[in-house]
Amino acid sequence: MSRLRLLLADDHTVVRQGLRRILEDRPEWEVVAEAGDGREAVRQAEVHKPDVAIVDVAMPLLNGIETTRQITRKSPATRVLVLSMHADEAYVTQILQAGATGYLLKDSADVDLIQAVAAVAKGTSFFSPAIARVMLDDYVQKLAEKGVTDRYESLSEREREIFQLIAEGKANKEMAVLLSISPSTVETHRARIMEKLDLHSAAEIVLYAVRRGVIR
């Protein structure tokens, strides 16, 4: 079995040491590099090409959002899990648009870190339970204020299946095999889903899925 290679980026040495201890309890996981600022994180990601980069959202020289954007551009195979103290939708939206796969609150890292890294390494989105609850509550409140219905209910059963798989990061070919349909049929469903929900990117699908409670 190949080892899971990790990059830790946080400007607090004590935090990095604590995260390293948790992560390296897994014998098949290895922290291959650390960084104390955003620019160094991007450089280390380019050099080491880690499977997962764990990035603090508030770092000197280059913030976590821009760090995420540059890592996903310069090392496309690297998945980014962002650590943050902020449990609000604005941060989550920016992080997803920058290309992150997961968003973990620092105060739950000791409990959820292993699960979060394992999910992100597979390309599956992960959000701290508190984030999912906040976003769902905000979403329901906004719908009530607008007096509109949730368009999700207009999706067919197959479209809801595919919607969840898209939000979980599955590629068209993977979905086709899993559902025993052709990739072109998957693409047709994807287009209809995005049209029905008025969504325009994979990041918007993930954000909508978290708001709707489809994924956590």
Strand order, largest beta sheet: 2-1-3-4-5-6
* Rg (C-alpha, Å): 18 Å
Q: Would you identify the CATH architecture of the largest domain? A: 3-Layer(aba) Sandwich
Major sheet summary line: 6 strands, parallel
Q: What is the terminal-to-terminal distance?
A: 28 Å
* Proportion in β-strands: 5-15%
Provide key terms for this protein.
Rossmann fold, Arc Repressor Mutant, subunit A, 2 domains, 10 helices, six-stranded parallel β-sheet, globular, 6 strands, 216 residues, alpha/beta, 55% helix
Describe this structure in words.
This protein has 10 helices and 6 strands, in the order E-H-E-H-E-H-E-H-E-H-E-H-H-H-H-H. The chain is an alpha/beta fold. The protein folds into 2 domains: 129 residues, Rossmann fold (3-Layer(aba) Sandwich), CATH 3.40.50; 64 residues, Winged helix-like DNA-binding domain superfamily/Winged helix DNA-binding domain (Arc Repressor Mutant, subunit A, Orthogonal Bundle), CATH 1.10.10. Strands 2-1-3-4-5-6 form a 6-stranded parallel beta sheet, sandwiched between helices.
Protein topology:
Elements: E1 4-9, H1 13-23, E2 29-35, H2 38-48, E3 52-56, H3 64-74, E4 79-84, H4 89-98, E5 102-105, H5 109-121, E6 126-127, H6 129-146, H7 157-167, H8 172-179, H9 183-197, H10 202-212
Parallel strand pairs: 1-2, 1-3, 3-4, 4-5, 5-6
Helix pairs in contact: 2-3, 3-4, 4-10, 7-9, 7-10, 8-9
